[in-house]
Amino acid sequence: MSIRTSTRVRIYDVAAAAGVSIATASKALNDTGRMTDETRSRVKDVAARLGFRPNAMARALLHQRSFTIGLLTNDTYGRFTLPLMAGVSEALVDQGVSVFLCAIEDDPALAKIHVDAMLDKQVDGIIASGKRIDRQLPVDLENLSVPVVYAFTQAPENGVSLVSDDAAGSREAVEWLKGLGRQRIVHVTGPRSFASVEERAGAYRAAVGADAQVLFGTWSEQWGHEAVARLWDAAGEKPDAIFCGNDQIARGVVDALRERGVSLPADVSVVGFDNWEIVAEATRPPLTTIDMNLKELGREAGRLVLALAAGEAVAPGIRKLPCTLVVRQSCGGGPRS
Amino acid sequence: MSIRTSTRVRIYDVAAAAGVSIATASKALNDTGRMTDETRSRVKDVAARLGFRPNAMARALLHQRSFTIGLLTNDTYGRFTLPLMAGVSEALVDQGVSVFLCAIEDDPALAKIHVDAMLDKQVDGIIASGKRIDRQLPVDLENLSVPVVYAFTQAPENGVSLVSDDAAGSREAVEWLKGLGRQRIVHVTGPRSFASVEERAGAYRAAVGADAQVLFGTWSEQWGHEAVARLWDAAGEKPDAIFCGNDQIARGVVDALRERGVSLPADVSVVGFDNWEIVAEATRPPLTTIDMNLKELGREAGRLVLALAAGEAVAPGIRKLPCTLVVRQSCGGGPRS
DNA sequence: TTGAAAGCGCTAACAC
DNA sequence: GTGTTAGCGCTTTCAA
User: Fold this and answer.
1) For the domain bounded by B166-292, which CATH number is listed?
2) Which residue among A70, A276, B79, B99 is least enclosed by CB atoms within 10 Å?
3) Is A118 on the interface with B (CB under 8 A)?
């Protein structure tokens, strides 16, 4: 019996304490091989008593599988990454898989360092995520020796990619407003240079028809204020609903309307996009908004990367996941039917 | 020469290609042992050409050191964790250390699963972090086989702990307001049940003196509104400055003052706490506020956990890191001298 | 100056 | 039913 008190208990210690060989101990603990039930349970008891936990490194070295994946993101703010991460983690934790989080800003050198570090640590796969779906991360992830899943960031040709269904979310918002009896629905959104802006605006136009009016601007509260000024200072009929490209714009819109004495939701309904709770819930009245279900997106990304790591075939291409309307008080209308 | 095309290149391959033994190859690459410079550089060239990267698992198994640490947090929102994480990552990345992020909500079972998984993976240390400094995480981290550093969460007796210096931050805010010539400074803050609320309020009282007036409430914009209503609807002299317990309260205060026609910063100065940019920058005018320097706190936590892992002695106890005043426009006054 | 061999903790063939 | 042994990729004595 070797003298190593301060260190972890190894399978060797379990075997010795149970009076069997380490092979038998291993088989007993992994429910493989054959032996009497008595031996198996004795070994298990001893292991439990000693607090034995197998060394994942040794296992990984043997199996070429580390039960570890890497999550790469350039979303320092975490607004998109955190819910995504929560989903990934949730999908993987009961498989015993842990997640390396690497925030790479937009620095290619830093990105490379992190990717190399993950590869050195033999991650089973990588999930690449970002803050917009029409930009690639500043690092080339093709032809890596491990599978890659792209979540909420642009994927290369033939990449396995997951995004939320912007168009469907947009349609959902418009339909909700229509269902409330709104007739003059305007869309106030971010910069045209964002693919999701065009996607949402396109779906909005298709749903609203000839009357469609889109105001492009920035992703800020201030732009929401300004857009309201433009709309209300113009001659002619005013909108009775505003569908906003994100929650910050929506908050600006709501504040501006209130300051003008426009009654919400009586006279005008406002829908946001993102369901960023810090913004949506602090708005007066709280925002009805579209949730991109990023946590579910993360779960799916976790499942996919694991499937890939296990050698299962996964069709490349872009998978669009549904958005959900979250009803608060900025539109009127009760909970959804 | 074995046939393994699809797999990573091992030191064996490098040795073979360079015509040396793996022992020599290893020494060459690690700048240990002795050999001719020619041999060493030849091996290095071959390794570079082959794109050799050592298997971190094998190394870890050998050295009992995984170059991996775990970051545990119950701050799902990420408001505190993300900057912290960024700092940790920054401090560790050039040491080749990667970070497992584990979001545990407030679920003891989940926490245990994650901690066990990290331990199985032989992390070199753990950083425990949270969303308030007067609550412990729902898991016992004492007597683990690896070092633990507590950052922005309550540590057990004798833990190594890092928090921001709330009292100093509070003093800084008050001094700034005094320096601007403000005479009637009120403090509007969160619930008394938070240690940091008492800490900040105490320092505020000490700095302001007999006139000190503290309004306790919740951490919300709404409470900011309500506090202004109380203060301005009361008889007597009005405050000329409000120091708020966080940025959300400050935003509520600023909005309420504007709605009352009080001119900011001409008549009243407002200081927030947290420097949560999404809130501070969207406020009109943008908030002057106290930054807790969580990123630096993260860096320090990373350094400490590494020192501990390396066996260096680190004195237990609470380390308070300084806060910084960030000047925007809600107080008047130029950039700091 | 270089190389053979042992071993980190574990699992899986293969003997017995 | 149980044990012996080889080996995952690497570093490190120790011998040549």
Assistant:
1) 3.40.50.2300
2) B79
3) yes
